[in-house]
Specification:
heterodimer; A: mainly alpha; elongated; B: mainly beta; 4-stranded antiparallel sheet; 37 strands
Chain lengths: 417, 551
Amino acid sequence: MSALLLALALAQAPNQAAVSDCSKAFADGFKEYQRKDLSQALIAFRAAVQCDPKLVDAHLAIADIYAERGNDGAALAALLQALRIEPKNVLALRAASNLYLKNALHNKALPLLETLVLAAPTSTDAHADLAAVYAASGNRKGAEKEFRRALELQADYFPALAGLGNLLARAGEDGVAMPLLHKAIRLQPKSYEGHFLLGSALNRLGQFEEARTELEEAAKIGGENEPQVFYQLARAWGGLGKAAERRAALSRFSELTRKEKEDTELQRKAAAWIDEARVLLQAGDLEQAASRLELAREAKPGDATLLFRLAGLNFDLQRYDVAREYVQAAISISPATWLYHYLLGLVERGANHLADSRTSLEMAIKLQPTEAPAFNALGEVLLEQGEHQAAIAAFEKAVKLAPGDATFQRNLASAKQ
Amino acid sequence: MTVRYFLPFWLLANNVLTPPAFVDATEASKINFVFDASKTQAKYLIEAMGGGVAMIDADGDGKLDLFFVNGAALKSGMGAKDRADKTAARYWNRLYHNNGDGTFTDVTEKAGLRGNGYGEGVAVGDCDNDGRADLFVTSLGGNVLYHNQGGGLFEDVTAKAGVAGGGWSTSAGFIDYDRDGILDLFVVRYLDWDFGKNKRCGGEGLALQAYCHPNEFPPQTHLLYRGLGGCRFEDVSAKAGIAKFPGKGLGVAFQDVDGDGWPDIFVANDSFPQQLFRNKRDGTFEEVALAMGAAYDEDGKVFAGMGVDIADYDNDGLPDVFVDALANQGYGLFRNRKYIFEYVSGPDGLAAASKMHSGWGARFFDYDNDGWKDIFVAQGHVMDNIELTQPGIRYRETPLLLRNVGGKFSDVSAKSGTPFLTGMAGRGAAFGDLNNDGAVDVVVSSNSGAPRVFLNRATENHWLLINTVGTKSNRDGMGASVRIVMASGRQQFGFVSTAGSYLSAHDKRVHFGLGREREVKLLEIRWPSGVVQTWQNIAANQIFVARESAQ
């Protein structure tokens, strides 16, 4: 995704003198990004899209930062927002399809890639990616056509050479496939994928000695943690009648797949613990709910929502130090989520850290100026700090946003007295 | 210059241009069964999985009757201890008597086979060696063994037999794993799931709610019961080493895959490595699927194994394995190369034919009697709303018929008759000769729908059906290895078992297509008892009763 922002930079650089507030917010974000302060950049970009929801580049920039932080869901949401505004935006199509492919959501990537090759017909990688998705979904004809189109555009494009070679080898068209795979390796001799695909094809042809050589090379130059390399290597050793070597390769394969299995199992358990926590919470057993969520957090340490839930539970249990730790961790993952700052504001207020509470609530309001509870909480903190006029202004805002809320009205009336 | 291509004579005899066709005989059969999945808004995974079908000669009249497993009433919000209600007649399992004229009559109530619980699969075998086929029905929460008392009457002997099990059982099969002359029972289990553990899966809103992926639930151990005689069993799952290897099992098939004379067990697992339990000949098993090359697909990836069968499709004397899978994965054909399996779906034509399909009940069988075992697959996606999220994939699919031409498969479904024109949510599939005409027929069950009876009209080629009768071995002869040698010198191999496919049980008799050959020169049977028996010069086109000799 970093190429995305680079492209944006090129596109936006001449416009930095733009006069509107929205453009200014975007330019601020860009400056922060250049300073590598991604949190501030994100806040500025969010301000830009609040100012002008149709600012496609700001949505793209937000997506870029989220993707860089590993929050693919939020990145995709921003990209899809950009595509709602500009359905043929090449950057958004490219980035969104990449994220879908990264998460093995081929069906979702497919329509984006089909639009992308129409919007950018000379994009070699778009054709190659579309071909790969076609191949994965059984559309062999489509895959071959798109791989060939990519090679027409760029005859030495490695992914297309390797992809087409692999596709044809699997279909038994070895005469055409093998030269393509050999050419791919000549282009990128240090890419394990090329050696792996050639080794697999040679296995299929029963050329086990040659397959072994290629697969051992693949294992040496980057495929050492790829289970499929060792699976194919075991096949080659088996073909050569070397039982001990086959067993060793299978053992390595098992070791690598066991890790994958354990991760899957851990994710399943985490989901179960979250479900249990929900039930316990509904039954009012906050302590047990928190302990289940804690177990889930160990399995999913980068899940901001889970951290937020844990913070909320500990806030309810008046464990402010623990709550602070969790919500700050959530904010570090997703700094532009107003709710996290709002909760941090409540936590700090609970801990009687009024200045910190105020800072957090102001940040929440900056990110989401339409949330009455944030204004109300800020009003309460300001009141405790003795800033009556500012408190009244905050309560008035809360009442304006949620005119039917009796608490906000009562707070406003009380502050005015 | 004229070029002449000399083909082996058996290929010339194959009617390559006009393969024999099946006819859909469902309506004529008068079978009015409907599998009632009792679909709910909760989308319990079990709703999508059933049910099984068995071909069983329940009354011993020499004609195969049909038994269908049914669901039971479900409702949203069921808890861990809730049991599905099978009281209403629409949920009963059903036995249909074969009238011998193409029609069947519902004899469920007389037979005493209504059942209980949410049914899944069925197994057939003579558990007390009295010459009558007994019936084992799996379901969620507990299984049932019915002892055949003769005259088409059955008695629930589960408690006495000790085979109720528990959890979510799917396929099952009778096997004499210790070769003691008494049938044992293997029961596959799927997931550690009950109604209380159900989850909401899929997209937002009711329309996109989906059945959960099996990754959402832990695996479950399978069950092995050792037969003690008189339809009584002992649970030896732990002692035999089976319980050490939980899986997410849906299908099971038995064969002697390593040629040591002892039957092994293959379990098709859903999104979990396939399992091959090698019989260690001492009452225990070791799991060797990875070591023997049959645990994963060609790329070392897990796939959604559902239906399974084992047979020697390339006539080289080594049994091969077929496991079907979900759309976008391709079905797995594992060729046995001297006891190491090689995934050959690509070169042998299966990958291309199956990539977009989802397979369940399946079997190697020689539909055109040309001497090469073909493959039939009952198909249909697991998700009834799959078309909303994956428009290229269908929930209801036509079955797949793959013709074996000299060891390579080609899709001949489109030209093989009316059964291959109408889509269904195919699940179980049982194979056997319903009308004793030497052509193997197929009955396919449907999830939330009526089953279909596909009669095979193959008439051109010759055939032999072998009905084994054990004396020292178990009465069914289950586990016997059968070899035939024809006048041309060609050999074919078979194995006596009613298991295989998905949730279903087949005709016990071993079927061979003989092409144009009118005689089997040599028939050799290796009985589970160790007796090796041969017969010579057996005429084609008959049901040959092979009775085990005393030694």
